[in-house]
């Protein structure tokens, strides 16, 4: 199992919640990374601006391209598309307000330790990142305290 972090807005996360987390979508620049995902991989949602981990989904299928508009929007590029998709199912999804504040746990994660709470944006540049098993286990443990396993 490979763990990933997808970087996106809280609004996009809520749109995916409304869909039942049946799919995760990535920017056009992430074709190669999306194609590396396999069933059983986990995707952690890092929510920009609120600086929180919102939840985790499990990959259930192979990556595919789809240009249909599912409502996702980019904060940085108005017309940016999210054509790289993969089928998923919820794994750990807390209720809104019960997410993990990443600024409070920067010293617990290899991915964020060197940046600290004031420079977290540097750790999450780009739309999709592989993370270590240790970081995933820490994030999952913190989310598990806030949400039941789906």
- The total number of structural domains is 1
Note the overall shape.
globular
> How does the major sheet shape up?
8 strands, mixed
Q: Segments where pLDDT lies below 50 for 5+ residues? A: none
Helical content class: 10-25%
The number of helical elements comes to 5
Which class best fits the helix and strand makeup?
A: alpha+beta
**Count of extended strands:** 8
CATH architecture: Roll
Strand content of the residues, in percent?
25-35%
Instruction: Please state the average pLDDT score.
Output: 92
CATH superfamily: ph1033 like domains
Can you identify the CATH class? Alpha Beta
Radius of gyration over alpha carbons? Answer: 14 Å
Cα(first) to Cα(last) distance is: 18 Å
The helix-strand sequence is EHEHEEEEEHHEH
Named CATH topology? ph1033 like fold
Question: What are the defining features of this structure?
Answer:
ph1033 like fold, 5 helices, alpha+beta, single chain, 150 residues, 8 strands
Give structural notes.
Strands 1, 2, 3, 4, 5, 6, 7 and 8 form an 8-stranded mixed sheet that branches. The protein has one domain (3-144): ph1033 like domains (ph1033 like fold), CATH 3.10.590.10. The chain is built from 5 helices and 8 strands. The chain has helices at 10-18, 31-36, 110-113, 120-123, 133-144; strands at 3-8, 23-26, 42-47, 52-59, 64-65, 84-92, 100-101, 128-131. The relative contact order is 0.24. It is globular and about 40 Å long. Strand 3 and strand 4 (52-59) form a beta hairpin. Helix content is 23%, strand content 27%.
